[in-house]
Amino acid sequence: MTTTTERPEITVERTGHIAVVTLDRPPNNHVSVPLMRDLADLLEKIDGDETVRAVVLASAGKAFCAGADLAAPDGIGGSGMNGINDLYTQAVRLFSVETPIIAAVQGAAVGAGLGLALVADFRIASPEARFTANFVKLGFHPGFGLTHTLPRVIGEQRASLMFLTGRRVKPEEALAWGLV
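RE: above sequence
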C-alpha cells in the first residue's frame, strides 16, 4: 500500500509492520521548513499507530539530503533567522518520535541532511554515501542539533574533526566510527 502525503515530496509505503517513508524533492532533497513540518506531522501520526513497529527513512535520487535549502524563497535562508528557528522546532519534533527509525542513506548526507540521518536510531549506508558537516565552509554554527547528536554517536574528537574541517566521511570510515 503506497500513500502520498499532502506534500508530494513525501510518500509512505506500508509493508506489514514497517513504514517506508521516502523523501523525493529533486534534485538534492534539500530541507525546507514546510518539508520538515510535514515529515514531523507524518512521523507523529505513524508514532501513534501501534501496528507500525519501525520506520525506514529513505530518499529518492542521488542524494539522501544535501542540506538545507538556503536559496529558495520558502527555504531556510528565505526568512532569515526565523527560518533557522522554525527548522529547529521541526527538528525537535523529529527527535521526539518513539517508533524506531532506520535511515537508508545513499549519496550525500550534508549539513541538515546529516542531522536528518541522525534523527534515526540506526543508519545504513550505501557505497555511494557521504557524510559531511560543512557548516564551517559556509561560515556558521552547525545546525539541526548536530553539536549534541553527532558527538554522542561518534565521539567528541571525530565530531570536532567533521565540524572544524567540513571533511567528507565515506561509508567505510563511517562504519568504523559507529556512524553507520
